[in-house]
């Protein structure tokens, strides 16, 4: 039974965890480049230098002594996000949606006092949410106002678009939609929806929620398939440019769509998860192998995007 399942997955071109690690992550992502993507502040700085749009940075808390001035940094900002520079999977991200006198109202409706907010920032600095538990920095930045398209298919949080890029070519994409179960986070492991996206057109395909194929959002009842993602060519261009940005050959690019600012690069991931294959009901392996076989490799972002749209369209 087990061998039969493995054979069927192999025939479908599904990329497994060990093969991803050994054949792609280790082979195409040199270890010395990891800090460029594991540290969100460095990623943001690289993106800005390359002319890419990112959520505006309001401030950085690097040492404990700076925490006493955090409320001055936040003056004039009713909405903002505080997150660890080296966090992963959405852990440690605090979204403030407004003020209640001298206190802060979280997106969930919970009220947080000034001392509680300062203590939260201190926890970030201690490494509570960071990769490996190392001391970290707290980033304070613009709270994304998601594109109206997502209003009917998202619960509280901000949806994002994950695009897997291999050697500069966008090879597979999905949109991650927060749900009540995921506590408003666009994280599939915590209960968000993943809807596959056709590389050629930017339209959503099948969707998966808790490893079940779905067509509607569980909280809103609205369809999550057959939707056109706005600015699709720009999104593919941003994703393809991430290769030139970091030199990493196999990377997940996370982009958000702001209703006023358009596409914003959120972060990069050197170890992109494999659930994107479930969302697309397609394996990554044939797409990666196709890119590896290219003899005359396109050099520009535009050429790589055009190749991906021509050769990796949904059936």
Structural account:
This protein is of the alpha+beta class and 315 residues long. The chain folds into 2 domains: 2-52 and 146-311, D-amino Acid Aminotransferase, Chain A, domain 1 (2-Layer Sandwich), CATH 3.30.470.20; 57-141, Dna Ligase, domain 1, CATH 3.30.1490. It is 30% helix and 23% strand. Helix 7 packs across helix 10. It starts with a helix and ends with a helix. The relative contact order is 0.16.
Which CATH architecture of the largest domain is right? 2-Layer Sandwich
Q: Order of helices and strands, N to C?
A: HHHHEHEEEEHEEEEEEHEEHHH
Which CATH top level class of the largest domain fits? Alpha Beta
Shape category: globular
Number of strands: 13
Task: Describe the sheet with the most strands.
Answer: 7 strands, antiparallel
Global structural class: alpha+beta
* Uncertain spans: none
CATH topology of the largest domain: D-amino Acid Aminotransferase, Chain A, domain 1
In spatial order, strands of the major sheet run: 11-10-9-8-7-12-13
Quick take:
The chain is 30% helix and 23% strand. The chain is of the alpha+beta class. It folds into two domains: 2-52 and 146-311, 2-Layer Sandwich (D-amino Acid Aminotransferase, Chain A, domain 1), CATH 3.30.470.20; 57-141, 2-Layer Sandwich (Dna Ligase, domain 1), CATH 3.30.1490.
